[in-house]
Amino acid sequence: MALIVALPIHGFASPLDSNLLPLVPAGAQIVAGIEDPHNPGSKGRLLLVTHNNNLDFYDWVSLVGVDAHREVDEVIEVAASSSREELTEHLLLVAGRFDREYIFRAAARNGLATSEYEGEKVLLVKPFAREQQEMLDTRWMAILNDRIAIFGTPWLVKKALERNAAHASADTLLLNRLAQLPPDVNSWNVLVMSSPMLARHIAAEQLHAPWAHILDGANDLTVGIHYGPKARVDFALRTDNNPQSAYLASVLAQPHLLQISLSQTFRPQIVSLSSEQRRVQGSITLPGKQFDAWLARVYHSRSPTSVSDTAGAR
Predict the structure, then answer these.
(1) Same domain, 70 and 153
(2) Considering only CA atoms, which of 218, 213, 178 is closest in space to residue 194?
């Protein structure tokens, strides 16, 4: 399962204002958020997620496609490890407006069964025919008050529904990590895992520097993207020790190591960089149009129906 990009996006609000955050289970290793992902006039993209997250999103779109009046305001995707394997658990949270009864009736006509958990009706979704070699899980889908959709592996959907039933607050550690980002980011990622685990799940051939240098030696990474005439990449990471933080800061401070190339060359600029207490934090700017065009090429070069379980792109 590789981590890769991308969703379109429009507008912004601080990640801390998200109504979906309280549903994110504590201890998740990947949490990625983006606003208004289907606005046709949107330009920005970037999510680091697993291939299973990609499948969840496209399958969810198929399931709710019968609701012609649906609206999507925000998406959060989650991946976590369980006793089964690394990052095999996956969850999609979508805020917007949905007609649950209409969607569930249409699913029932297509043979999908339902169950119930924590007082919420749950749709049981078997793997789609097009992905039976990739998706092995029967996933659950719930829609809360026609405003929030939850879709993913039962282990994580149960946790999200339990948090909803308990009126839980957002996980403090997740909030603290997001608080490191400026409030105007359009999309964001929180990755919490060891460096070797990051290396196993990052698609390095698609994530050129500065990503490779930012990820090297990090145990957790928070990234936010603000789109505009100049795209801005904000990041904060934690390392095992202060010397490692100082080393990463020195690497990032070298302009020639911040070249990003995919059919064309960008010239990123470091606008801020600091290192203290095992943390490195900074911001990089890039030409917005070229950056978005590069992400679009990555997006179009990988189809979710043709990639294997070792790579994924949206």
Answers:
(1) yes
(2) 218
pTM of the predicted model as reported, rounded to 2 decimal places:
0.85
153 and 27 assigned to the same domain? yes
207-217 pLDDT, tens per residue?
Answer: 554 455 566 67
Q: pLDDT digit string (tens) for 260-300?
A: 444 455 677 888 999 988 889 999 888 888 777 777 666 66
- The DSSP secondary structure of 67-123, one letter per residue, reads -TT-EEEEEEEEEE--SS-TT-EEEEEEEEE--HHHHHHHHHHTT-EEEEETTEEEE
Cβ 151 vs Cβ 140: under 8 Å: yes
As separate numbers, helices (DSSP H) first and strands (DSSP E) second, the chain gives 8, 12
Residue matched to tokens 């970037």:
46
Sign of CA dihedral 139, 53, 282, 220: positive
In which domain, by residue range, is 120 found?
A: 15-165
Residue 180: inside a domain, yes or no?
no
